[in-house]
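Bug #2210: token dump truncated for Lytic transglycosylase domain-containing protein?
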Amino acid sequence: MSRRTAGLVAAFLAGLALVVVAVLVVRQLTAASKPELPVVPEARRPVVEIAARVCSMLSVPLLAAQIDAESGWRANADSGQAQGISQFAPDTWKEWGRDGNGDGKADVWEPRDAIPSQARYMCHLYKMVKVIPGGSTRLGSTRLALAAYNAGPSAVIRARGMPQLNETRGYVHKIMHDLLPKYRKAEKTYQESEAKHRSTKRGTATPSPSSPPSSDATASSTALSPAPDAATEPRPTAPGVAAPTTRRPR
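Reproduced locally. Full output below:
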């Protein structure tokens, strides 16, 4: 009788061990299959945040998703027809490239020049597509502005909407339906984490006697504030007028 009991106990324990192992394996597989959210590289965040304030239609997730689709955040990306982190065609860069880092030259390979230039160009494209059917809504204008960035404004104007180009349609779909939702979630997580960090820091800070802000703090605050864009915006391309070079599949 005791042997039979011992055998039943051993069988029960063996079965329990198998169940535990199965649960752990399922959890591991579930965790491994959960996609990680993309993030804005720490080195690029300051310039992306400032660029996102160029016009109300832009946001950090939108610019980040576009850069991801264009170059995968690689500053040296070169398709042969477009260059740099924001993938400007040479003719488009001639018109829209600006010196963003204050070194006296507009360099398409320098992200601090290219990303603000990308933002200004996108704001211009948003204005252009307003007159196109479907371009008066925020969603429609974003789709058409992205299409114009990829294929060239003239292609969108001729099509009176989304061009019949597989590359352009795939580009817009990838940003709108894949990358943008992920970057929105990632940005929400980032902002919540930053808010929690600031709250914790305030809660643990030791009160100190009142004193006027130091000159270093004032200078730092001024340096981080975006300077107004004094440059005159290039004249918008009118329908029928040659626009920047259409980019072909890279």
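Output looks complete on our side. The chain is about 60% helix and 0% strand. Marking as cannot-reproduce; reopen if the truncation happens again.
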